[in-house]
Design brief:
Length: 440
């Protein structure tokens, strides 16, 4: 990829520029977007809720079990799992097949079913076909269904094949792998893949939350969330200046061409599982660009499903709170180059309305959790020969300063940097560290 191409493929939210980029790509790339959409639409989905018959404060693990082909060594395999801190909703994304569900209360939080743990083990098999959504399943765990047996969810999942034919999103999800930030996997090329080849991203890179060091219960997690076509290395300056004696950097790496609500749901599920595993009760979230939208939705979903007041600080840099006016015209664009997240950038999209107002009427304001402090920074620098509304070279200041976001912010810092430069600015480094010191 040439330097000019890299510039255009940065996390630009001005839709005409993105369309210009797409139209300049080889034909195979255009077909690639259409094929990515076809793959996503072929996934089957299972949704439901789980409760328990007896009071308990143990996490609940819901298990998706696949019936394998005749002649297989094991007629059943654990395809995926969903961890909940308390009774609530679960969801699986998988390839078609024959399945059943089970559930158990993980009393010792080891992601194993141990003898005597309340469970549910007798769900009937059901078929899922291409593109089907099975909704409304209700599960109830009970001590009366406890069994004298033992199995390890994580070990059994690893034994199952990781391919597109026997696919489940959970088995490709990263939950705390320790990596090096300078690995090319976390650079610009992968960010471009995440936008244009979002289905391939899942299979080839793995969405999820990554660690830069082994989990340390004495350090507070700081979760970094990138934007559209973004990548973790964009946060290298902020991470390099983080107090690593007090804080441990994590980052959420995801295919940014997917629908934003689905991305936020995946992030919330992954965070909830890490919380069950490590039992942390404080963290900060730091985002850039469209990552601010994902992060706000993530924080709201995390609160809804856990009611835990552990996201103490949310810092957003140059977020498009008001979306992109150009995205309102996306319906006129060739549909084989339209990625899902562009649709959510329409100022009138349900997603943008839903992160500030309660669905379905979007009239009642929807605030962040009471214990979450929110601070925002935004850039306003652009080339001297630029025309039109005030902007940072990518986003308009109007979008960056949406009224509902401004009213929710504890502090607002405008900086004379463009959309990319603000993340590496000394002022952003200083402000983030000051906010971390004040909050923790």
């Amino acid at each position: 990829m040439t330097e000019d191409r890299k510039t255009l493929a940065r996390p630009a939210l001005v839709v005409p520029a993105l369309l210009a980029l797409a139209l300049s790509l080889p034909g195979c790339a255009l077909l690639g977007v259409s094929e990515q959409r076809d793959v996503v639409q072929s996934f089957a989905r299972v949704r439901g809720s789980v409760t328990r018959a007896e009071p308990s404060d143990s996490p609940i693990i819901v298990v998706l079990v696949r019936k394998t082909a005749p002649g297989s060594a094991d007629p059943l395999q654990i395809e995926d799992h969903y961890a909940l801190e308390r009774p609530g909703n679960f969801a699986f994304v998988t390839s078609p097949g024959t399945f059943r569900l089970a559930a158990f209360e993980d009393r010792n939080r080891n992601f194993r079913y141990d003898p005597g743990e309340p469970g549910l083990h007798s769900q009937s098999f059901f078929e899922l076909v291409t593109g089907q959504t099975l909704d409304g399943i209700e599960l109830v765990t009970s001590a009366s269904q406890a069994r004298d047996e033992h199995f390890d969810i994580l070990v059994l999942e690893k034994r199952a094949p990781r391919d597109q034919h026997n696919f489940s999103l959970g088995r490709f999800t990263v939950r705390g792998d320790v990596v090096e930030l300078d690995n090319p996997r976390f650079g610009a090329e992968s960010g471009s893949m995440g936008m244009w080849r979002f289905a391939d991203f899942v299979f080839e890179l793995g969405p999820g939350i990554y660690f830069l060091e082994d989990y340390d219960p004495n350090k507070i997690p700081v979760l970094f969330v990138h934007g559209i076509s973004g990548y973790p290395q964009e946060f290298s300056t902020l991470i390099a200046n983080l107090d690593r004696e007090r804080f441990q950097p994590w980052f959420y790496f995801y295919p940014s061409g997917m629908h934003l609500d689905a991305i936020a749901s995946h992030a919330a599920e992954t965070l909830a599982e890490l919380q069950i595993r490590h039992d942390f009760d404080e963290l900060a979230v730091v985002s850039h660009s469209m990552g601010g939208l994902v992060s706000r939705a993530l924080i709201l979903k995390h609160w809804d499903r856990t009611q835990r007041a552990d996201v103490k600080l949310f810092v957003a840099l140059s977020a498009p709170w008001g979306g992109s006016e150009s995205a309102a015209n996306i319906a006129n664009a060739p549909q084989d180059i339209v990625v899902y997240s562009w649709l959510d950038m329409n100022p009138s999209s349900d997603f943008l309305k839903g992160i500030f107002f309660e669905a379905p009427d979007y009239e009642q304001p929807r605030g962040l959790p009471p214990a979450t402090r929110f601070d925002m920074l935004f850039g306003y620098h652009r080339k001297d020969n630029s025309f039109g509304p005030s902007a940072d070279g990518v986003l308009t200041v109007k979008s960056e300063t949406r009224l509902e976001a401004v009213e929710a912010a504890e502090s607002i810092l405008p900086l004379d940097y463009d959309h990319v430069g603000i993340v590496h600015s000394p002022e952003a480094v200083e402000r983030l560290n000051k906010l971390l010191d004040e909050t923790f």
